[in-house]
Design a protein that fits this description.
The structure holds two protein chains of two kinds.
Chain A (H helix, E strand, L loop, with lengths): L7 E3 L5 H10 L4 E5 L16 E5 L14 E5 L14 E4 L15 E4 L12 E7 L13 E6 L15 E4 L10 E4 L3 H13 L12 E5 L11 H7 L4
Parallel strand pairs in A: 1-2, 2-3, 3-4, 4-5, 5-6, 6-7, 7-8, 8-9
Antiparallel strand pairs in A: 9-11, 10-11
Chain B lengths: L2 H7 L14 H13 L4 E4 L11 E3 L20 E3 L8 E3 L3 E3 L9 H14 L2 E3 L7 H6 L2 E6 L8 H6 L2 E5 L11 E2 L6 H7 L7 E2 L10 H14 L6 E6 L3 H10 L4 E5 L5 E5 H6 L4 H14 L8 E5 L5 H9 L4 E4 L1 H7 L7 H6 L24 H4 L4 H25 L13 E3 L2 H7 L18
Parallel strand pairs in B: 5-15, 6-7, 7-8, 8-11, 11-12, 12-14, 14-15
Antiparallel strand pairs in B: 1-13, 2-16, 3-4, 9-10
Classes of the chains: A alpha/beta, B alpha/beta.
The structure holds flavin mononucleotide.
The site of flavin mononucleotide has 32 residues of chain B, from strand 13 and helix 12.
């Protein structure tokens, strides 16, 4: 069952449940959400290519697990913005607190302001562009995808990360375990240029200003000694 | 007499006496550690002696308690989870569910066998740390989708295909630890499902990435309900650490069901030191979880309790229910039912340095029974149809045994079993389970006789 989307939902007199139920049933169109007032789970679990504009700040898990939809927040977002996003685009004009884009598998998350701790934690293919800074433990255990930070990164960036690529224009307070700086090749300049363009931030930064960080792959496997085997083969002097 | 004659006549058996403190397992482990420089990683559950439900007995009927006819009178076994909040509650025919074990840790054939057996028996299976496969969805009538810290393979489409969601906070074998899957088992398919490079030793996150405490979890559960349109129940699984508080906080966070997994609980791979030394036994955990549910007035009501960790028999099922659980969950026993540790494979287990009955190297991927492996030749050995039949038979026996015990105690539903039907064989069991030591009215730590 598909329903036509109303032009506006006013969360002053509509529940999040009613909003999300309508958004889940819609197959296309666009709408504006008014008076979110920090509500949680706004526009969570969308599955179709609809456009949702939220006028105001949202609580936890806005646009969580997004598929195909475009969600634009004119304000700030709290914890878990676009967590586990699969596809589509989620954008906030203000700041995002903890775990923005966490575990995202695909799509694009854009934070025009700063993002707090654990931005891109366990990311699995999503692209994240942050206009300002990211907090500590960002890209912790990040598996795949690209994190582009126009400002600075906090402590322990990319701790225990896998194959995700991290691009930071400013300073990095410290790198986490197994994270190292890597060379910016033409391919990487291209990735940054492309993401800046998708994020509408091409004028704000030049790809050549970014430095790249990734995994040293030293934690991929346990290090296991075997003295007995060495002695048996006579390898030990 | 010469010294030589003394030697011949004297009993020198002390020279063969093993130390209790440094027994042969301890010595072997010290030598292994010295050789490799890495802690021991293994599967299975705790192996050292622990208090178990064997330390409890049912009293049965007597002058003042009327039994039900064992073969004739009805004794209900059904369980409904999530009726209060979910549009589609989980309805189980029997109070035994199959615990979360990932594709990756288990072969596709093993997952299929579990699905087939559980579906015939009328109960649920559970995904694991690595996402949902089409095979297991297809073969499981009721499938619980685990939502874990790693979020490997976490996909909202699968979430919506599930019959329930289990938010995993912890696991009995390793409360406070994350998943582990060794490189041998990270094949192309497993690696792709988890977005991981092939062959790495996967050490999953132990903390959820986007919530940090019970207040956050409450909001997380609201999100999961929103995304699934309030259709399906939500469980919270915890390792048995602080079951009273953990259960109370799970209720507060909005769970429809709390799964408490005791320290005996099996695992696919973890540090031995974790398996043997963290968490409390199932017998001690259930009463504490029940106390929390009772204090919050939801016991046998809107929030169900599933107990796990070392459940082997219908007696264990009935005792867990008598202590107040609504259902139990099995991992290791289900694997044994479909063929794990098969004595017929003893030669092969021995070739791997183990023996049928002692095999614990689930982490290794070399399982001759084809269950805890991703090797295509080994896993092809497990016939999922036969495995499914074996599991269905086993689940039937657990249910029949639990019914037998319930009827003997005069109960027309297994949920009518109660602590009053039990006595403890040891002082420790009496204290932990909160039932009197057999032949006395003494419950250590509580004042006065019961009632
Ligand atoms: C092979 C294997 C894999 C497991 N994988 C998971 C998992 O992915 N997630 C989880 O929460 N628990 C996992 N467990 C633990 C079980 O869900 C369950 O808690 C435990 O097996 C119950 O104890 P029992 O084995 O004594 O029945 C696994 C257990 C085994 C034996």
């Amino acid at each position: 069952m598909s329903l036509a989307l109303p032009d506006t939902f006013d969360l002053a007199d509509t529940t999040v449940r009613e909003l999300n139920r309508s958004l889940h049933l819609a197959e296309g169109g666009s709408c504006t959400v008014l008076n979110p007032r920090g509500a949680h789970s706004v526009a969570a679990g969308l599955t179709s290519p609809i456009d949702v504009t939220v006028d105001g700040s949202v609580g936890y898990y806005c646009a969580g697990m997004n598929q195909q939809a475009t969600v634009h927040v004119n304000g700030n977002a709290s914890t878990g913005l676009a967590e586990n996003i699969m596809s589509g685009t989620v954008r906030v004009t203000g700041n995002a607190t903890m775990s923005a884009g966490a575990t995202g598998h695909g799509g694009l998350v854009v934070v025009e302001g700063n993002a707090g701790a654990r931005c891109g934690i366990s990311m699995k293919g999503v692209d994240i562009v942050v206009g300002g800074n990211v907090g500590h433990m960002s890209a912790f255990m990040a598996q795949a995808g690209n994190l582009v930070v126009l400002g600075n990164a906090g402590d322990d960036l990319g701790d225990s990360l896998y194959e995700a690529r991290l691009f930071v224009r400013g300073t990095v307070a410290s790198l986490g375990a197994d994270a190292v700086e890597k060379e910016m090749g033409p391919e990487h300049l291209g990735i940054v240029a492309d993401l800046l363009e998708k994020a509408d931030m091409s004028d704000a930064a030049n790809p050549s200003e970014f430095r790249r960080y990734g995994t040293a792959r030293q934690l991929y496997n346990f290090h296991i000694d075997d003295i007995d085997a060495e002695l048996a083969t006579g390898a030990t002097p | 007499m010469t010294d030589g004659m003394m030697d011949g006549m004297t009993d020198r058996s002390w020279q063969h006496r093993e130390s209790y403190t440094f027994d042969r397992h301890v010595i072997a482990e010290i030598r292994r550690a010295a050789n490799t420089g890495i802690y021991r990683i293994r599967g299975f559950g705790a192996k050292r002696p622990l208090p178990t439900l064997d330390d409890l007995v049912f009293l049965g009927a007597s002058m003042s308690r009327y039994p039900l006819e064992g073969y004739r009178e009805a004794c209900g076994t059904d369980v409904i989870i999530g009726a209060e909040r979910a549009e589609r509650p989980v309805r189980l025919k029997i109070p035994v569910t199959i615990a979360g074990m990932s594709f990756g840790s288990l072969s596709a054939q093993a997952k299929e066998a579990l699905g087939r057996g559980a579906s015939v028996a009328g109960t649920s299976t559970t995904t694991g740390d690595g996402g949902m496969t089409q095979e297991e969805r297809g073969h499981s009538e009721t499938l619980v989708y685990q939502y874990l810290p790693s979020r490997y393979g976490m996909n909202p489409d699968d979430l919506r295909k599930a019959d329930a969601i289990e938010v995993v906070v912890g696991q009995g074998a390793k409360p406070g630890g994350g998943g582990m899957l060794m490189g041998q088992k990270i094949t192309e398919r497993v690696g792709e499902m988890r977005t991981l490079p092939v062959g790495i030793d996967q050490r999953s996150a132990c903390r959820h990435p986007d919530w940090t405490g019970p207040d956050d979890l409450e909001i997380k559960i609201q999100e999961l309900r929103e995304i699934t349109d309030w259709q399906i129940p939500i469980y919270i699984k915890v390792g048995a650490a602080r079951p009273f508080y953990d259960t109370a906080l799970a209720v507060k966070a909005g769970a429809d069901c709390v799964v408490v997994d005791g320290m005996q609980g099996g695992t696919a791979a973890t540090q031995d030191v974790f398996i043997e030394h963290v968490g409390i036994p199932t017998i001690a955990a259930i009463p504490e979880a029940v106390r929390a549910l009772q204090e919050l007035d939801v016991h046998r009501g809107s929030v169900k309790l599933i107990a796990a960790g070392g459940i082997r028999s219908g007696a264990d099922v009935a005792k867990a229910l008598a202590l107040g659980a609504d259902a139990v969950s099995i991992g290791t026993a289900a694997l044994i039912a479909i063929g794990d540790n098969d004595p017929g494979l003893d030669d092969e287990y021995r070739a791997l340095g183990s023996a049928a009955g002692a095999w614990e190297d689930y982490q290794d991927g070399t399982d001759p029974a084809g269950i805890t492996t991703q090797n295509p030749e080994l896993s092809a050995r497990l016939d999922p149809v036969i495995g499914g039949r074996r599991l269905a038979n086993y689940l039937q026996v657990l249910t029949l045994e639990a019914q037998t015990l319930a009827r003997a105690n005069g109960k027309s539903h297994v949920h009518n079993l109660e602590p009053e039907d039990l006595a403890a064989l040891t002082v420790e069991a009496a204290a932990m389970a909160g039932v009197p030591l057999a032949g006395t009215s003494w419950i250590p730590g509580r004042d006065g006789p019961r009632n």
